[in-house]
Specification:
With about 450 residues, the chain is α/β, with parallel strands linked by helices. Helix content is about 20%, strand content about 30%. It has helices at about 15-25, 130-135, 140-145, 190-195, 235-245, 260-275, 295-300, 335-355, 405-410, and strands at about 30-35, 50, 60, 65, 80-90, 105-110, 120-125, 155, 165-170, 180, 200-205, 210-215, 220, 230-235, 250-255, 280, 300-305, 310, 315-320, 325-330, 365-370, 370-375, 380-390, 390-395, 415-420, 425, 430-435. The strands form eight sheets. A six-stranded mixed sheet has the order 15-12-16-20-19-17, with helices on both faces. It has a five-stranded mixed sheet with strand order 7-4-6-5-8, with helices on one face. The chain has a five-stranded mixed barrel with strand order 21-24-23-25-27. A hairpin with a 2-residue loop joins β23 (about 380-390) and β24. α5 runs parallel beside α8 (about 335-355). Bound molecules: adenosine monophosphate (AMP) and magnesium ion.
């Protein structure tokens, strides 16, 4: 695309405007089929119905004895009823044509085993001579097993039961054909279990976004190197890739582009060859002598947005790259700025591509314990620590707020939002806190 044909929004946008612009560029990715365990944390893209009744048959919810409830009438601690044991029913067995609990008889039965015909209730071991012997003697397991009533012997029942007691009915969880999960549901461990129970070894989900991650800068060395004079380690690729991975995307680490047009162009072509859903670069988007990202994007695609009234993170860039118009997010270089702008702008876009219905982190209201004064004119996302005092959330900044101070990001569990219009927060003021984390010690 020609440079002069481009319309670049040079006015800086508010966080809300920038987010709206960015989100409008993304749609949920197409559905693909994956093995069940690869679906954890992503979004279902099909209706799932039960292929059978669950439980598939009436079964016992206790280890005990399957009885005709009527036989137990009047049974109590001092008036046990004796029944003749005529069969055993372990889990995994199924009643044969000859299996039947006749009045006056009982089957020993294990949890999950099918209830044999004739029986209409189960009485647990604890309420039989077997269980009582166990309680009284506190027997070791091998002795307990020796207490089991054998076929042909009697067992004493110390409690009366009603029809249906301790029986789990066929279809009580779901009936064949029932809708058990709908498109749009995020698959947590419970949903993975439900899918397993209806035989879904493979499942249709929205594809995970593939995101190329590129650092830029002549000063950068890799993480396993000791930086020489004037050098620093490439932190951003790792923090950004980790964010992406933790959100359900697939990071593709492209390493570092040097501060030259040629090398940056080559790296971006390398990125395009991976057919990513999004390219994320960091640094080189400001107005420094060697900040080429915007220029290169102008020649290899187009720039749709540059600069947001946010701190940290002002020189944020968004555009399109190559013929396929792959979205590009140019993050600022300072590690905290890149992580915060990832949270504010990349995460919602990733959530949208994943097909999630909720795109945003939870926000709580928290009372400031300290004054915060960082100047105004831009919305400030202060690295914060939210804790709880009784029923109320309270918050304080992490200390140093320089956008290069990555350890302060590590201490934070939240970003405290100071709106554009507010220049100073006094102790006792309430703030919105965007929770990066939902730490156990707070909630
Ligand atoms: P720039 O936008 O290129 O001027 O970079 C702003 C600041 O971020 C500079 O201090 C850079 O050294 C630093 N920086 C840029 N890229 C990275 C990176 N990948 N890891 C750590 N720091 C970086
Ligand atoms: Mg640079």
């Amino acid at each position: 695309m020609k440079e002069e044909a481009q319309e670049v929004t040079l006015t800086s946008l508010s966080v809300a405007e920038a987010l709206e612009n960015i989100l409008a560029q993304f749609e949920p990715l197409r559905a693909i089929e994956v093995p069940l365990m690869e679906a954890l944390g992503i979004v279902l893209a099909e209706e799932v119905r039960s292929d059978m009744d669950n439980p598939p048959f009436d079964n016992s919810s206790m280890d005990g004895y399957a009885v005709c409830a009527e036989d137990t009438t009047g049974a109590g601690d001092n008036s046990p009823v004796a029944l003749r044991v005529t069969g055993h029913m372990p889990a995994g067995a199924f009643p044969q044509p000859t299996d039947r609990v006749e009045p006056g008889t009982t089957y020993r039965i294990m949890t999950g085993a099918p209830v044999p015909p004739g029986a209409d209730a189960v009485i647990r071991f604890e309420d039989t001579s077997e269980g009582r012997a166990l309680d009284n003697a506190r027997l070791l397991p091998e002795h307990a097993r020796a207490q089991a009533s054998h076929i042909g012997e009697d067992v004493l029942l110390y409690r009366s039961v009603k029809p249906g007691d301790s029986i789990r009915r066929a279809g009580e969880d779901m009936r064949e054909g029932d809708l058990v999960l709908s498109p749009g549901v995020t698959l947590r461990p419970a949903e993975i279990g439900v899918l397993a129970s209806v035989g879904k070894a493979r499942v249709r989900v929205h594809r995970r976004p593939r995101v190329a991650v590129l650092a830029t800068g002549d000063e950068l060395v890799e993480v396993d190197q000791m930086p020489g004079p004037g050098q620093i380690r490439n932190t951003n690729n790792y923090a950004v890739a980790a964010q992406l991975q933790s959100w359900g995307a697939v990071p593709l680490n492209l390493g570092v582009a040097r501060d030259s047009r040629e090398h940056l162009e080559a790296k971006l072509r390398e990125a395009l060859a991976l057919e990513p859903d999004l390219v994320i670069s960091s640094a080189g988007v400001s107005v420094g002598d060697h900040d080429f990202v915007k220029d290169v994007l102008l020649s290899m695609g187009r720039v749709q947005m540059w600069r947001v009234r946010v701190r940290p993170g002002k020189p944020l860039l968004f555009g399109r790259l190559g013929e396929r118009e792959v979205p590009v997010l140019g993050l600022p270089g300072n590690p905290v700025s890149s992580m915060v702008t990832m949270e504010l702008f990349a995460r919602p876009a990733i959530m949208k591509m994943l097909g999630k219905s909720r795109l945003h982190r939870p926000v709580v209201t928290a009372r400031a314990l300290e004054a915060m004064d960082y100047g105004s004119g831009r919305a400030h996302y202060v690295r914060g620590i939210v804790t709880r005092e009784g029923e109320e959330y309270v918050c304080r900044p992490t200390g140093g707020q320089g956008s290069n101070l990555l350890t302060s990001m590590s201490r934070a569990n939240s970003l405290l939002i100071i709106p554009e219009s507010v220049s100073r927060v006094e102790p006792g003021d309430t703030l919105k806190a965007l929770m990066l984390d939902w730490p156990e010690e707070v909630f």
